[in-house]
Amino acid sequence: MKKVKYLAIALALILGMVMLACGQPVGYVSEDNEAAQTIIPLLASPPAVTSVTQTAFDTDTTDHYVNMPAAVSTGDLLIILFTNDGSTTVTRPDGWSSLASSANGEAVRMSVYYKIAAGTEGSTTVNLATSAGEQAAAQVYRITDWNGTTPPAISTAATGTNPAPNAPSLNPAGWNVTDTLWLAVA
Fold this sequence. Notes:
- This protein is mainly beta.
- The chain has a single domain, classed as Jelly Rolls (Sandwich).
- It is 0% helix and 47% strand.
- The chain is built from no helices and 15 strands.
- Strand 9 and strand 10 form a beta hairpin.
- The protein is globular.
């Protein structure tokens, strides 16, 4: 059996709950039986992965035009997971923030970028250029109902050849008191 080198990370999005004043009014009768009052309940939506868009690059190239999701709304969180088959560096795309870029020797590099969407990214591409020709694969996660301000937290990378890797632990502040979306990537 061929051993495949990997990188594993844990990515926690401390996304919080989005509280919305919406829904049907609920009637309430006070103790003195006066006229009914209107109460609008608050509904909470946990953060959610709305779509995952994949792009594969089966031949060595330096330009990797990664497909964005077809639909993107203002304020969505976009996360690119980009893995190339060597250790060459990856240029951060304009308008994106880097969360990590780690290599496992000369075999593989994983880079993670995020962006708060402007709403114009739908069905476009973003170039992740490598410093030498590389085969690669990318996934773009579109996340909705997050708090809109706190950048994602990310663990350090773990490397190895185990066919069942575990991402390192991650304990970001607030994860146990608010809705948190966890992504483990290998």
